[in-house]
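pls design
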């Protein structure tokens, strides 16, 4: 199928399956993969309490400005299954413990939902979509003891077991086709030193995710264009604006969707077409993307996923495709 034909008719829930064979044989770390930022914040509700990662200023203001703060902590509108169905294959996960509970919760300043249901949605999805591969990036852990890490890691191992893609020294051998043959569909990145207790999880340096920390479009675009990556590792480009307390203060009655996500959609998404996946080459100075993440990924009929997935067709135009990756 041609690039334009694929883009117009892409079946987002099966997009990895439907990629041309040449692309399915390119190393996974050189593909363009859409992901969601703060993936599980859709579960934040008016009854959500403050979590251990809340900034001090949030703790002071929360009782007075409850509704406003929630509008600026929610970054996604649809649940894990809906995100998968519109092509999202990377999840940015931040977790916290809660006093008086043995459960683990997703968090973004305030508690989102308990982790089991969304992770079960992901497990069910990959069972029904054997060609799709999902990255679970356990980014932050708040209020965790060493025992909590052990319990969480056991839970993940028990849930996904043989479907996990084990850590390996050379990531060039991992392709969509090789993973399908092995029936491995879940990459877990665990950004804590506990990762060394198991060989099933990937270390943080295998897929760096540098934070742009920008509240304006120009700064964000400069960051995305100039950030450097290791050619032997995966990478996460964060196409997100980060509102500072001062930024929010002047936009108090608005929300993150209107003042951060929509400007990114309108001004950064069109620029994404200038980016390319593939092996980073120092001499051409161009950024090579792997995972790209955004807020409110469902906007405009999932235009974000479609744009990122379409970037993979640039790999077919690479004259050196056969010997670069073979």
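designed seq:
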């Amino acid at each position: 199928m041609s690039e334009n034909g694929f883009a117009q008719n892409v079946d987002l829930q099966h997009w990895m399956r439907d990629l041309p064979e040449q692309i399915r044989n390119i190393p996974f770390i050189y593909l363009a993969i859409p992901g969601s930022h703060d993936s599980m914040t859709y579960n934040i509700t008016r009854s959500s309490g403050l979590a251990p990662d809340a900034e001090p200023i949030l703790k002071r203001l929360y009782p007075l400005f409850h509704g406003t703060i929630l509008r600026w902590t929610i970054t996604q509108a649809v649940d894990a299954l809906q995100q998968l169905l519109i092509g999202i294959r990377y999840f940015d996960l931040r977790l916290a413990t809660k006093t008086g509970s043995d459960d683990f919760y997703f968090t973004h300043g305030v508690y989102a939902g308990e982790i089991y249901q969304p992770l079960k949605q992901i497990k069910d999805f990959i069972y029904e979509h054997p060609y799709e591969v999902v990255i679970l990036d356990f980014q932050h852990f708040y209020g965790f003891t060493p025992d909590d890490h052990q319990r969480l890691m056991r839970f993940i191992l028990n849930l996904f077991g043989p479907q996990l893609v084990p850590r390996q020294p050379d990531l060039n051998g991992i392709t969509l086709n090789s993973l399908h043959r092995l029936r491995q569909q879940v990459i877990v990145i665990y950004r804590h030193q506990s990762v060394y207790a198991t060989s099933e999880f990937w270390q943080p340096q295998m897929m760096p995710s540098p934070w742009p920390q920008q509240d304006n479009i120009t700064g964000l675009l400069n960051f995305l264009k100039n950030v450097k990556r290791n050619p032997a590792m995966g990478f996460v480009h964060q196409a997100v604006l980060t509102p500072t307390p001062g930024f929010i203060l002047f936009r108090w009655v608005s929300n993150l969707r209107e003042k951060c996500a929509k400007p990114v959609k309108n001004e950064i998404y069109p620029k994404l077409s200038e980016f390319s996946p593939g092996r980073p080459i120092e001499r051409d100075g161009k950024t090579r993307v792997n995972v790209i993440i955004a807020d409110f990924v469902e906007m405009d009929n999932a235009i974000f996923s479609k744009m990122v997935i379409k970037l993979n067709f640039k790999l077919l135009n690479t004259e050196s495709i056969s010997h670069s990756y073979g």
